[in-house]
Amino acid sequence: MSHASYELKAETRERVGKGSSRELRRNGLIPAVIYGDKQAPLSIALSTKEVTMKIHAGGFMTTVATIDVNGEKIRVLPKDYQLDPVRDFTMHVDFLRVSKDSQVTVAVPVHFENEEKSPGLKAGGVLNIVRHDVELNVSANDIPEFLTVDLSGLKVGDAIHISNIKLPKGATPVITDRDFTIATIVAPAGGVKEEAEGEAEA
């Protein structure tokens, strides 16, 4: 499962547009929109500090949250956010309404483990990561925090495909027409050492 759910307090925005957005930001608030689930979009304002902390904590885009809008609790999944390109503060967030039955599309990060158990990497090979995340169609309640790739036993020239990764129950890749590559182990520019260092201890 992904990061633990959290709750944010929000207030509705009566006025929308650049002028009112600038005014919100001056007051420490971020303009945001909740949309989806066959309901009209809802314009809200959130605490800049709280949202920025959640974004920097990691897992923001894969964690279902609850937004308390004037007492009404709405389950959402962040779908997009904009950062100021110069000052790096959050300018706007889009949230998608979700229910327990909602199917969502999310980009889930890929983590690699057991690099020390890969003969190819021990011999000087290089892990060439083709995809740092994978887009999945998955239940909103079962979004994984990350996907794990086990590098044990992999040699130079080996490739890891999506079919090699254990996906959560009910999750399917967005790309379905091919067994796409996640990473490969390639020879370094100078070639691979004849014998991996530390092989004797293994």
UniProtKB/TrEMBL annotation:
Any Gene Ontology CC annotation: cytosolic large ribosomal subunit
Large ribosomal subunit protein bL25 L25 domain: residues covered: 8-95
SUPFAM superfamilies recorded: Ribosomal protein L25-like (SSF50715)
Keyword Transmembrane helix: no
CDD domains in the cross-refs: Ribosomal_L25_TL5_CTC (cd00495)
Disordered: annotated segments: 1-22
GO MF annotation, one: structural constituent of ribosome
Keyword field contains RNA-binding: yes
GO biological process: translation
Coiled-coil features, chain-numbered ranges: none
Annotated ranges, domain Large ribosomal subunit protein bL25 beta: 104-188
UniProt keyword list: Ribonucleoprotein, Ribosomal protein, RNA-binding, rRNA-binding
Subunit comment: Part of the 50S ribosomal subunit; part of the 5S rRNA/L5/L18/L25 subcomplex. Contacts the 5S rRNA. Binds to the 5S rRNA independently of L5 and L18.
HAMAP family assigned: Ribosomal_bL25_CTC (MF_01334)
Function: This is one of the proteins that binds to the 5S RNA in the ribosome where it forms part of the central protuberance.
Family membership: Belongs to the bacterial ribosomal protein bL25 family. CTC subfamily.
Protein name: Large ribosomal subunit protein bL25
